[in-house]
Amino acid sequence: MLPLEKIQEIIQESNYISRDLSWIQFNYRVLDQAKKERRSLLERLKFIAIAASNLDEFFMIRVGSLYNYLDYNKQRNDFSNLREEPFRQTLYAQCQEFKENLYAYFIENLVSKFADSGFSILTTLEDLSEQEREKVRDYFHATIFPMLTPMVYDNHHTFPILMNKILVLGIVTKGRNESSSEANNRKASFVQIPQNLPRFFEIERNSGEIVFIPIELIIRNYLDMIFRNVEISSVTLFRITRNGDFSLEENDDLEVDVLQELKSKLKTRKTGRVVRLEIEQGNYSTWLLRLLKSRWDIDDANIFEIPYLLDLTSLWQIVRNKDLSSDIKKMPSAVAPLALQIQTEGDIFQKIKRRDLLLHHPYNSFEPVLHLLEEAAEDPDVLAIKITIYRLAKDSRITNALLRAAENGKNVAVLFEVKARFDEENNIREAQRLQQAGCFVIYGISNVKTHTKLMLIVRKEKDRVVRYVHMSSGNYNEDTARLYTDVSLLSTKEIYAQDISEFFNAITGHSVPEQYRQLITAPNLMRKKLINLIENEKNNALQGLPSGICIKINSLQDQEFCDALYSASQAGVPIELIVRGVCCLRPKRKGLSENIAVRSIVGDFLEHARLFYFHNAGEPLVYGGSADAMVRSFDRRIESLFQIIEPQARQEAISILAYNLMDNQNSYLMQEDGTYHALECLPEVEPIDVHRLFFDLNWEKIENVRLDALFKKIAPATPSMLSEAIQNGADLDL
User: Fold this and answer.
1) 193, 144: one domain
2) Quick check: 404 pLDDT over 80?
3) Distances in Å between the alpha carbon of 490 and those of 230, 242, 464, 660?
4) What is the pLDDT of residues 509-567, one digit of tens each?
5) N or C: which end of the chain has fewer CB within 10 A?
6) What is the structure's pLDDT at 720?
7) pLDDT (tens digit, 9 = 90+) per residue, 302-349?
């Protein structure tokens, strides 16, 4: 085992940052949202729950993927330059440290505020009145007890399959007449707590206080009813996380086999390899723990001792409690899109024909998109609807509109990605509904994932056919459209319509377009096209022409893309990157990336928009779309970026980037070592919170915003970047 100092030295020597270690830094930024005292208590608890949920998924997918290499002795390439086992030790150590920070802040700073906010979480039933205990007793007998199934493990019973992310009580017992000194007499039994019951039983007191009683506390209190005439030696609460990373095998017989294989693979999430065991701190059986470690082939690194309230994702029940939810600060009502009032009333088709409409969600309502599709479903002049679907809302208006369109005899084609992670089962169900209604449904492409967001509506208007297109960075999901920031474009331009028609022909048939006029697509073309755009900026800088790059994405990991940015930086191109999550590029390294600044924005909304700006010697090229700068985005996904060519729409996109760079309330600046520092707003600098500001923008406020004014502040040989200039209150001519 390498010493910690040597491991850190190896990590820092690399010109790139490990994707997984970068992700942990991102989750610290999520946790930091819970520390902001300007938020209400429930808002802060929400971010605690999000951070915990993020960590669950990280162990299932990223750590699960690591074990796919460890368990089969395969070599894994990682930007940390560490081999598999040293990397595992490093990764688990950092996850343990994050867990300590998460719980320390939760316990020391938030739990004490529960009473002032009108609720409490009990740690013992002794705190209940007799009448309240009666309610708990009735709830146990009527609801909980009939659902519990104790599972014993001994010489006559095999070890039970314990489910992923489910609270489990591990009970060590011995018979009444057996000697307690004989270890072989001990038996392990397991009681899985039903996941379809609320984590907390709620009691509202006359004072108005709401008491949340953990379900495991209730079950512990009545275990003697489950284990009658048996001596219970110990009770241990624990929770396991299993490897949830799987990939579909390539299969030519897609339509039939991909669904069956996907259904089969989904089952492995319930029985996959254990990668984490969370257990109550100081309240567990060491004998049982040894048994579990041996059974699941895990060691001390995999064991996470939890000091209080195992599984913090259960805080969602408190956050969503209707009697407490008034504590959640409401966001402003979404205004109409910039420069053009779009209401749900009126002819949406005519409004889109007047000019391209750039929507910035959630500041601009998602309603125009829904309204367009619902109108198209009913409009007798609409001939066809084609759409790609990745994730849907519950009770989706998108699905309902497509069903209505099919019922009305329209030609409906849906490229439905059934491999969208954690939404697979819902997507299969919804896709089959559409297919049964007469829609032409394609269940994704076998060896790639369809992540692009495109819609095409074909409408007959007098003596011609008009094609309406919608292109987006976000999903066709009206629920997340209120929570995620995204950009989308509505247009009737033939240059877009022809590209999207070609795209659907390539997906549904055997057409192989050599290139598109305005779309940049993946796999195959996107990496090369984007690198060409970066190299154009590099060449401009070398020729003494103005240059600059500003990119806003969720994740940056592709090495060729990073190398192109490094090369441009060395040529003097000022580069501003707004990367919400994982960033494998190392900024501000001398001789490598001195002209690159990276910031992350984390706040009230999940930053999900993707925008690419290339200065192009004063004639900016701006693209939006679904793709991040990831290997998977370039090589293993169907993605698209669309060039924003209509001047007003392009200016709106540029303003989004400019104001993101001005934010000083939600921004974190990435350091060379891969850590992030919150950008502090100096007292003399006006606070700018983009998650508020965009609700108030209008055309007058954005028409003169220019990114070139920002880039001119950065001389090629000067390492001082725009982000630092903003931090120091520089005049940005905006």
Assistant:
1) yes
2) yes
3) 68, 42, 20, 23
4) 665 666 788 899 998 899 999 999 999 999 999 999 999 999 999 999 999 999 999 99
5) N
6) 39
7) 999 999 999 999 999 999 998 887 666 665 555 544 434 454 456 889
State how far the alpha carbon of 309 is from the alpha carbons of 51, 105, 280, 282, in Å. Answer: 15, 13, 8, 13
From residue 345, alpha-carbon distances to 45, 362, 381 in Å are 39, 19, 19
Alpha carbon distance 538, 552 (integer Å) = 19
Total-model pTM: 0.90
What values do phi and psi take at 726, rounded to 5? Answer: -65, -45
Name the one residue in this structure whose structure tokens are 């994050």: 98
How does pLDDT run across 442-472, given as a tens digit for each residue? 876 767 888 899 999 999 998 899 999 999 9
* CA dihedral for 358, 361, 367, 371, sign (positive or negative): positive
The single-letter code of the amino acid at 337 is P
CATH code of the domain covering residue 394? 3.30.870.10
Cα separation, 282 vs 295, in Å, equals 21
Torsion of CA 648, 653, 655, 658, to 10 degrees: -150
**What one-character DSSP code corresponds to residue 202?**
E
**524 burial level (CB within 10 Å; 0-12, 13-18, 19+):** exposed
Question: How far apart (Å, rounded) are the C-alpha atoms in residues 150 and 226?
Answer: 7
CATH for 224 = 3.30.1840.10
Whether residue 451 lies in the annotated active site: yes
**Residue entry with tokens 């609409």:** 382
Locus of tokens 């209707």: 322
CB of 666 within 8 A of CB of 603? yes
Structure confidence at residue 2 (pLDDT): 76
Distance between first and last Cα of the chain: 54
Cα–Cα distance for residue pair 391/377, rounded to 1 Å: 20
Residue type, 210: I
Name, in order, each residue with C-beta under 8 angstroms of 524's C-beta and a sequence gap of 6 or more.
none
Is the separation of the CB atoms in 212 and 200 below 8 Å? yes
Q: How far apart are CA 557 and CA 532, in angstroms?
A: 18
Q: Which of 361, 451, 470, 691 is catalytic?
A: 451
- Those residues whose C-beta lies under 8 Å from the C-beta of residue 16, and which sit 6 or more positions away, are 79, 559, 562, 584, 585, 586
Q: Which two tokens stand for residue 682?
A: 């100096």
Other beta carbons within 10 angstroms of residue 23's beta carbon come to: 20
8 A C-beta contact, residue 659 and residue 732? no
**Does 48 fall in a domain?**
no
Find all residues with CB under 8 Å of 579, minimum gap 6, and list them. Answer: 551, 552, 553, 554, 555, 556, 598, 599, 600, 670
pLDDT-above-70 percentage for the chain: 87
pLDDT value, residue 5? 84
How far, in Å, CA of 444 to CA of 251, rounded?
A: 12
Task: Tell me if 53 is assigned to some domain.
Answer: no
- The 10s digit of each residue's pLDDT in 93-113 is 999 999 999 999 999 999 999
Contact of 459 with 468, CB cutoff 8 Å: yes
119-121: strand order across its sheet:
119-121, 210-214, 200-204
Q: 618 and 491 share a domain? A: no
Q: Is the pLDDT of residue 91 over 70?
A: yes
- Token output for 363: 């500041």
**289 pLDDT tier (thresholds 50, 70, 90):** very high
- Domain that includes residue 191, residue range: 124-242+276-296+303-307
- Kindly state whether residues 483 and 582 are assigned to the same domain: no
Tally of CA atoms within 13 A in the half-sphere of 434 that contains its CB: 32
Question: Any idea how long the chain is?
Answer: 734
Give the pLDDT confidence of 224-252 residue by residue, as tens digits.
999 988 899 999 999 999 998 765 433 33
Count structural domains, the chain.
4
